[in-house]
């Protein structure tokens, strides 16, 4: 049990429920074949018997049928599963309008058997584009990747077709992911050259039966770098012609190419603003080149050094005025929060502010700011918190982020997750990080889904359905992100990590070229107080939210204190809800986080009887690292903030183990994920 099989292990079930013994399918398309193969693999594993494939029902069977008269409610990807009888035999019928619906139905049926759900169900995805974003470089490294090298062996493609590519597609299809952006948003133009397109085409061929289309990150200056043009100005006819020809070239090789993801005018990447043009000038030019064949996902993650005000406000300022000006095949891809994938962020104000534009959610699955692949932090709970928040779009209640993302008024909708997988045997660098990939897929399928239910499914399939395991482990998962937020960035603090690697604490960092790269810019701690005032007396970023949404955070006295210092600068003596002064509350929250991290080891130790030795030990080891590093975060942060507050620690709280200078002196030149 090295984790390679993910949640598709199909170990024999203890339950006495008789399982079907044959699979009946009329068609033999590549996708139906994949569905049959998965059912065969799954049912034989779960029942411990050989499962046959037949043309007619003569034994208890699973019957796959593509509907001849389409069922409107199922759409192109939905399915219906019903128990019944045929030829005197019990059957499970999986029906769908399309082959891919049958494959999704097959995976859903296997999931339902393993999790003890009733067989009968009808389901269809609520979001159209459910994509992984790989931040993979052509040299095989992965930006913010903590699970080994890139899965894409660009060097040996297109000839070498690693069987792992098929397992990648199976795993993604099993959770409904239907697209993948192969290369880093910090893109190299080379990925658009003929040799790389030939390599990408092989991946597209491998993924196609599983309903997964490929997309590429496009470097905006590619017409200069590859085409020899003098400009990449989106209004220049030669530039437009170059992209059109490039799109045609791509479609000749990859007929179902999904489209382009673009990071423009952000962190040094080229973009339309280099030519005095706007985001929509750039996005619409690419959209025209693709035509109705594909989409442009234009990222809203933009911030400039020259804007000294508040980085929180920049995406909104640049995009909101252009609502309604993007071409119909453009989505604006917005990170969950306005800063950058912090352990906790309020939802991005753009989600309530661009009703005329399809907004694609961008979550980070790879844990750049939550302890890489070492610390256990279940992100399903994080995603759910963001998706359930009410944006009050158009001043109306009930416009949760989930509903905005589902995009009911738009033809397009999407959710992207920055992938956490690589060549590690267990894919994600640690076993529990598999759950974050899983939860992302399930929530992209249904953004209103429950993180708790999803964790339960995952735990049952990945380990065991035994409730003595599932109940405590799911509880641990559900709490884990809060624990990390407590020991890294309590009470709404954010961006406190050290330079470059983003792993350990660096609240003291004040020496970077731009103010908004420095932790001190975000916490603003001095001898009087701490926090970022984003109300009217400060940067007023709060005003980017609808008036009703502002009420969640406007008053420190009534708000959820987990966001307190995100929006308010308060004195160390400010009295928190507990009655304690802010300084004490801050220290106690750090302390609580570190203690909880240590306690996770105990919970896990009690799980030993239910887990194979290999995974038990691997997880015990990462939890040990986490406990040690949670203490490091706690100690370093308390030492630093105490140097500002000058206050004594609350009674009974242990002093940091080492001096502030010691924590400041630590360096990590070979930390993974940063290139
Ligand atoms: C930040 C990462 C950086 C990415 C950037 C982005 O530190 O590596 O390139 O986001 O999303 O979180 O473009």
TrEMBL record:
GO terms for cellular component: extracellular region. Residues 429-652 form the Glycosyl hydrolase family 67 C-terminal domain. Transmembrane segments: none annotated. It comes from the Bacteria. InterPro entries: A-glucoronidase_C_sf (IPR037054), GH (IPR017853), Glyco_hydro_67_aGlcAse (IPR011395), Glyco_hydro_67_aGlcAse_N (IPR005154), Glyco_hydro_67_C (IPR011099), Glyco_hydro_67_cat (IPR011100), Hex-like_dom2 (IPR029018). Residues 118-427 form the Glycosyl hydrolase family 67 catalytic domain. Gene3D superfamilies: Alpha-glucuronidase, C-terminal domain, Chitobiase/beta-hexosaminidase domain 2-like, Glycosidases. One of its GO terms (biological process) is xylan catabolic process. Keywords: Carbohydrate metabolism, Glycosidase, Hydrolase, Polysaccharide degradation, Signal, Xylan degradation. It is an enzyme of class 3 (hydrolase). PANTHER family: ALPHA-GLUCURONIDASE A. This is Xylan alpha-1,2-glucuronidase.
